[in-house]
Amino acid sequence: MSDQQAKLSEQKMKTYRVQGFTCTNCANIFENNVKKLQGVEDAKVNFGASKIYVHGSTTIEELEKAGAFENLKIRDEKEQKIERESFWKKKANIKVYISAILLVMSWLLGEQYGEGHILPTIGFAAAILIGGYSLFIKGFKNLSRFKFDMNTLMTIAILGAAVIGQWGEGAMVVILFAISEALERYSVDKARQSIESLMDIAPKEALIRRENKEMQVHVEDILVGDIMIVKPGQKLAMDGTVIQGISTLNQAAITGESVPVTKTVGDEVFAGTLNEEGLLEVKVTKKVEDTTISKIIHLVEEAQAERAPSQAFVDRFAQYYTPAIVVLALLIAVVPPLLFGADWSIWVYQGLAVLVVGCPCALVVSTPVAVVTAIGNAAKNGVLIKGGIHLEEAGALKAIAFDKTGTLTNGVPAVTDIITYSGNENELMTITAAIEKGSQHPLASAIMRKAEENSLDFNGVLVEDFQSITGKGVKAKVNNELYYVGSPNLFEEVHGSIERNQERQIIEMQTQGKTVMVLGTEQEILSLIAVADEIRETSKDVISKLNSIGIETVMLTGDNQRTAVEIGKQVGVSDIKADLLPEDKLNFIKELRGKHKSVGMVGDGVNDAPALAAATVGVAMGGVGTDTALETADIALMSDDLRQLPYTINLSRKALMIIKQNITFSLVIKLMALLLVIPGWLTLWIAIFSDMGATLLVTLNSLRLLNSKE
Questions:
Q1: Active-site residue, from 149, 239, 315, 403
Q2: What average pLDDT does this structure show over 505-528?
Q3: pTM
């Protein structure tokens, strides 16, 4: 969020949706017009999200008057979104049809009576007035303020063409410019649909039970604590916790993951997800504006408003470029006739053509459409990129550091090996789980989960005289037999020593980065249970992909060196740093930035917050339901899936490539057209086609980002 938007949010602010923006320049004009309205203290337009934030008091009617130059439609943010007019039925486009018909009729009359005849001249003049009416109003206002933009340049060029008798070409310029603007508006709307599709994800009403009565309630009126009833095939309208029922939920709309997730009592569920099977009763835990999908939409809209570095460069460049074009056109129009006695009409015509060629449309639109499209596409694929600057920086990363626990690994310990020396494996596992039920150690929960997976009834086992042995394990009686569960060190104390074969197996598993727990009696060791934080299935593949595209990968962990080295080898990272405290991670990121300018950090967004902040790009795992991840990171992987990381880097690199292509192409095509002035070949037709063609091509090139997938 910019400083101005932060300042606005602190005070009373109203948000409105806007329909009809064609370009960033029009958005800036509208913003300035609103600032001048009575009762308005400040205003800020978000072009990417088609919104305006107004601080102060005004009405929708007043706002629409301020946007009348572009026929903007305004709605309160909370109202239903504005119905889109058909491309062919838009008022601005209808004027183009009338002008085009008049142009064709006037051309036919010119063929019959001659170009200088009064009838075709009247027809061309009518086509210019009807098609260019709104353009001229903006152009004359700008001229009166000595403000030079594309409207000013076009107004001078068209009127100049009429003055030197080129009525037909003047009318053609008007129509082609209007067509260019209409297609540009269509393309920008297409880019915005990515964010609008997010807004449509969650329903606007839900079936709520209050005081044993069921009723349909609008999301704005749903309260925290209400019970929401969600039938199979329905989408959830609010975030909450399941209090009754079991079902699978498709979370693809929020996380980008295609595989449905099973939810049961106690599980957290999110607005916008689809209930596929069972009936669920959900206790609402957040207001509509605080739901995860609302936060995602808000953050994406803010991100689309943030200017990327390349956009800031283009905007600064255009400030000097446009006046320079006006000066160049003036020199071309007057120097040859004044100094060399050349024909005035020829060189004034060339000067007017230079004005049209120099129109900065393509240059100005080259970056924002690409940024808006890429960020919207990423959001639909479960990646939240919080600004154009982070989009660009992700593509320039040279090294990425990964937290181990919960990032490269699942973050939950699991039983990996069971070795039995005496008795039945299931019986021994049942006894171990029954004893560990009384322990608070994380490894105990791993053993109980394994027993549950194997359908072992450890809850029915009577455990007596349970006693914790601090730092070593536990002991308890089962069926009047005393059992010990704990570390190998505990059994060295109990037995005096461990058999060589058993010790070899323990060391072997420990070398693999596993923690070994032992079950035994005072007489013998019955079984070994190895527990480890398992590597994510996707980690190895993701690290391999990143290494293959030239990114150095580093694993950072607070775990011991032996475990870290084993896991680091398995996933294939370039470097491993173990035994790190949070401040050590922070210092290492700073050190890495000294070596590579652009460094990414991937973590869970909580204990890794300092390192995430210190990195060029901080990437948080599992943004869904995690406020810290959404707030601290520059990029959040919503589905907790590392595979979204290579997709994000590829999307960023593609966006950067497209932005560079757009800027280069728009400048090269203008330069080529300007060079036609030297032999005197530049015509208004060529000028408008080069400008219109460049604008359309850079916009369509940007829209290729809509098709970027994992």
A1: 403
A2: 88
A3: 0.69
